[in-house]
Every structure is written in C-alpha cells, then in structure tokens.
Amino acid sequence: MKLPPGQKRVLEALSALVREGISPTAHDLTKALGLRPQSLRQHLEALRRKGLLRLYPGGHGRPTHLELTPEGRLLAGLAIPLVGRIPAGPLEANGEEVEGLLLLPGKPHLFALVVEGDSMAEYLLEGDLVVVERGPKPRPGEVAAVLHEGRTTLKYVYPKGDRVVLRPHNPAYPTLELPAEEVEIQGVFRFLLRGREALERFQLLLRL
C-alpha cells in the first residue's frame, strides 16, 4: 500500500516510538513530528480509515492512544507475516495464505513458514518457524524454499548449469536434481525460531 508523504511520515514516527518500547499517543506524535494537532488528526483519521491504525480517545483532555493494526504493523516493518506450513520432506502442495504475524522487526520481502517433516533434521525440526527472504538468489549450499510443479519444499540448493540440485540434511531422504527452469526459488533462509510452543509462550505469534 502506497501512502501519501504526510501519512507515511506519521506511520514511520509511530513505528519508531513502538520500537523504543513506547505505547504511543497523539501527544507523543505531535512532539515528535512538530505538527499542529489538527493536521495530525487528519493523518491519523486517514490511517484509521485505511485499516492501519486504531484510535482510543482518552476523553476529558487526556491524549488519544494509538495502536497499529496487524496490517499497520506489517507496513511499518514491525512484523513478519506467517504464510503457512512448508514440508521439509517430500515435495507437497503448499499455499500462501497469511495465518498470523511474528511480532519481530521485519522488512518488505521477509515471510515465515512452519516446518513440517524431517528431511532437514537435525538442522530444521518439525514445528520450527523459518524466516526466508523473497528475491535474492541462493548461494551454493544455502537453504531455500523452492517451488516445483506447484509444490514447495525446504532444501539445500546447488545450481548446476541448466539444472539445480536440492539436497536434504537428513541422509535418509534422496537428493533431487531437476531442470533449473522448472524450479522457482520462493525465498532464501535467513533465520529460524525454534519451536512453535516457544513462540506462543513468548507471545510472538499474533493471529490475524
């Protein structure tokens, strides 16, 4: 979503306050941006109408508290979308519907997936959340989410001329060699969060 400069500036200031651990109010933004209250209110209302912000008026001269919606957190770079499950075993179908948010600083091309299967064990375990970056090409031996014939898997990737080798971590699973034109790199592995239980315990997962 592309925002006008004024709204973008307000969203960036909100993001900065949240990153500092501040629960922002309209008064905080007025000080941070040097805007007149009336101008700020117009920007806040516009962000609210776009579904990026919730406003909680304090009443009786108290400041309005501000809360970014999940969509607002994504746009502000304060969350990483969780888009489903990805097998780390045989190639299986996988969709990309957003299931929730990881409340961690992100950037536009990062997304997270829940690992299923054991072909990448002991490196990636079932239930882990992996964060991958869409866009860059994997270097030889990097782990990537790859799509082949409508199915997605996590594997070590080794480009080999006009072919590509997909290797599991678990030697019990076969190494695949496929035509490079038939394989789409969906994202390169960046980091993992060990176990969904731990995420829920630390309340890093927020259902949309």
Plain-language structure description:
- Helix content is 23%, strand content 35%.
- With 208 residues, it is of the alpha+beta class.
- The chain contains 5 helices and 13 strands.
- Strands 3, 4, 5, 6, 7, 8, 9, 10, 11, 12 and 13 form an 11-stranded mixed sheet that branches. It has a two-stranded antiparallel sheet with strand order 1-2.
- About 3% of the residues have low confidence.
Count the E strands.
13
The secondary-structure element order is HHHEEHEEEEEEEEEEHE
- Number of helical regions: 5
- The proportion of residues in beta strands is 35-45%
Low-confidence stretches: 90-95
Helix content: 10-25%
The helix-and-strand class reads alpha+beta
Gross morphology is elongated
Biggest sheet character: 11 strands, mixed
Could you tell me the mean pLDDT? Answer: 85
User: What is the gyration radius calculated from CA atoms?
Assistant: 21 Å
Distance between the termini: 18 Å
